[in-house]
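Collaborator request, handled under Task 6.
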Amino acid sequence: MELLDRKTPPLFKTVDKIEMIQATEKRLRNNIPVYAVNAGTQELIKIEFIFSAGMYQQHLPLQATTASAMLEEGTSKLSAAEIADAVDFYGAFLETGVSQDYASVVLYTLNKHMKSTLPVIEQLIKDSIFPQEEIDTHLQNKKQLFLVNNQKVATVARKRFGELLFGEKHPYGINVKEKDFDVINIHHLKDFYNAYYRANSCKIVLAGKVNDDVYTMLDEHFGGNDWLATNDLSRPGTAITSSREHEQLIYKEDAMQSAIRIGKILFNKTHPDYQPMQIVNTILGGYFGSRLMSNIREDKGYTYGIGSGMVSLKHGGYFFISTEVGVDVCKKATDEIYFELKRLRTEVLPEEELQLVKNYMLGTFLRSVDGPFAMAEKFKGIMEYNLGYDYFDRYIATIKAFSASDVMRLATTYLNEDSMIELVVGKKN
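Structure tokens returned to the collaborator:
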């Protein structure tokens, strides 16, 4: 048996191009697009129905999230228990979810059981009845959780920060209030469901073993005109009105920790500087070895964790820095955050650090496209913005060509503290 030579490191290979299995597109009879990443060795398939039924579309707080949560609670033919049993019996898995822009219904099933599991999903999507008792229980539980979480500085900061960035009347900035749990009712949910869980608002993404039978069954259950919307599904755009108040403190007398949020409206991934700014963000606070972590956690010991990020939404985007620190070091922590922002603008990044970040980002991307489900997630990230697969080629090329001067240029353009909104929830000593 040959022993491993642990003194000689493995050969280092650079990532020049990542080969991905690209999604193919077909259409059902009613024109619903079906995108398929046909890959994998197991007879398993993930079927995701994506609807333009996110929080951006709702006209009342809680409409989108509650409608999504209630989908599994009963149809005119199946109770919640019968739905769960029908899925579990075949070893399948069902989940629903909602984001700012979209809602989804996802089925994981063995190919051989699609004939049995897909009709259950059809009922959820076309025939949910929203039982009043289940709505009441759900809202009561959510209200209790809301009241508990609202005592946490991190929760208060996250909610208020969205208001400060987008404006309290913007769909991305509207927050749930306690009274909203008493306002929402079955009619609001049915109106939203009937308007947005419709064929006109639907896209289907498949991942795994995709054969002709899959398309045949999808067309049988979802290709008809029986669930086309008759209303206009679009929602007029709303102007973003960021707060003119660049520093805000929400004082909490009994707080042991302060939540810090610093950031600004930026742009989404359709902007030419989005990919280069991802590199700057990673250097600043996008991985465990970032400058914010090295300074504020490792060197100063002010926090257990701190990070920065870029959020891309369909109708906008933003940059943020987030952490929780002891109230006694809150002012010192914010000073160090601004110090790190200034360093990016004024000091040349060492080549060794830049190369480390490049390798980290390329490696992370490589891991993120491992397997059909992961590749489908990547496809969804470009489908939402009408981008092509060349987006990923540009991403690799951008990382490889990025220089220290690019860091300073972008940081000077976008990361000046005077353009930031700072929110502290707790105390700022």
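The cover message to the collaborator said: "The longest strand covers residues 316-326. The radius of gyration is 24 Å. Please let us know whether this matches your experimental observations."
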